[in-house]
Structure formats: structure tokens, C-alpha cells
Amino acid sequence: MSIIKRKVFYFLVSFLLLTNFHATAQNLDNFKYKGGKIQSLNSAVQTENQFNGYTNHWQNTYSRWYRYGNLYKMAISNVEKTIMQSKVDIAEDLGIPGLVMQEGFMSGLLADKYVSLDRPTPEDLETKLRQGNVLVFVDPDSEFGEKVRMKLPENVWVERLKSHQYNAKNIINVNAFYLQNGERKVFVVSSKDENVRNKVKALIDNTVEVIEKYDLHKGWFGAKTLLKSVTCMGGHPLEVIGKGLNEGNSWFVFDGYMDFLAKGELKEWMEQVNLPVVTDVGFSPIYGCKDWD
Prior knowledge:
This protein is an alpha/beta fold. Helices cover 36% and strands 25% of the residues. It contains 9 helices and 11 strands. The strands form 3 sheets. It has a 5-stranded mixed beta sheet, with helices on both faces. Strands 1-2-3 form a 3-stranded antiparallel beta sheet, with helices on one face. The protein has a 3-stranded parallel beta sheet with strand order 9-10-11. The longest helix has 23 residues, at 3-25.
């Protein structure tokens, strides 16, 4: 092959290769989006923040801070810790700040008949379990109490919450939980302090008495709509009642501005929707009512 023909041959081959490469590489059909789904949260900076201490009062706050590109910042409550802290606060209001009660303890206890035993022997417990459920009060340092306590998962809330209640020098821990075998249950109240165990027993006995004596209904005082006012405020009375029903309420007292003018309408609406809901209008809660009927 002559030099000229060889050069022409190489030129044609190179031209064809380059043309084919250019056509393949620059074809839009061969381009793909590699970013995946657009999720701004993946690029957000998340910071856990909590405060357990005293300002002008004792407080425990738990939140998560979200920041995005120095353009956006938001703080929201840490739901899990906030719920647990509310339980600690309630326990403190009951006079037993170290109380940690398993979910469903009281509802399970009240669902069936039970026998109460104070620091029983294993033989006493086995005898009573043949008859039904048993509520036992034990010292975790005793042989029987240690055996029962070992079945309870480790309580990590003290380290996770760091509540001011748990930092108190006189804190006394008490665990209320239940063990189950088939349909039979053993409800356990475990604490080193006998006085604390007696406090829990008194609370349980009082709860049983109240539940047996009264038919309890949850409701809302201070519901507002401003239905009869020119001031804008979202929510029709039926919408407010609907939201309340989602939270287990069955009675509502509306005290918004001029809401008392809607008393007749509320009665008619309740009859139309045929709901077991009691409504009323007023300006203040009822304290010390002598006739709840």
C-alpha cells in the first residue's frame, strides 16, 4: 500500500471511530440522574439538645435542632424523652418521683380479679397463682425479690433522661411491672423502701375504689370557636368536637367570646349527628360540684 493510500485509510478509520464515539457519548438518552430522591434532611445538621436544671424553676427539656445550609433552623421536642419525662413529673406529683411503671400495668391489673401479697415466699405465690392473678410487693434485695427483678430489663431512663428528680440525693426507685405466663399474670411492685411500697399500694387501692365508684368521662373545658363573633378564628364547633373525640373526649364546655349564643345550635347539632357527646357553654371550670349528674 502506498504512503498516500495508507494515510487516507488511517484518516477514514480515525474519522469513523471519532464520529461513533461522539455520537455515543453525547446522546441524551445515555445520560442518567444519579442523585436519587431529593431529600433535604440528608444534608441537614441534627443536634440533640437537653437541659436538666434550675432557672427560676426546675425544668427538664429535650429537643432536636435541625439546621440546613445556614438558611433554616428549627427546634422540635424529642417526643420519646418528653413523654417519659412527663411520667417522671406525674410520679413526683404523686409523691413517688422514682416510680417507673410498665405500660398497661394498671389496665391489666384492673381487667381481672387478683390477690395482693406482701413479700410472699415462692410457695405462697405458686399457691395463689392457681386461683388467679397476683399482685406482689417485694424488696429487690431479698432472695425472692432478686429472682423477680432479674426478669426485668435494665432501666436506662435514669442515664438517658438525667432528670433533676433522678439527681436528688433522697431518690428511691420503685419499679411496677408484670410477668405473664399464658393467661396468668404476676404484677410486681419492687422497691427497697417499705414506705414507698406502701405508698404505691395505697395509690393502687385508691384507683380501684375510684374506678369502681365512678364512671369517668374525659372532656375539654375552655373550648373556643368565636362562632358568634366577627373575629377570625379557625374551627367550627363540630370540627373542635371532632378533634376532641380523637383524643377520647365526650364532653365540651365552650367559653369563647359570645360562644354562649350558640348553646341552642349545639344542642340541635348533637341531636342531628347522634353522638354520645355532652356540650355546654360557660366562662369558668366547675370546682367542687356537689351533683355531677
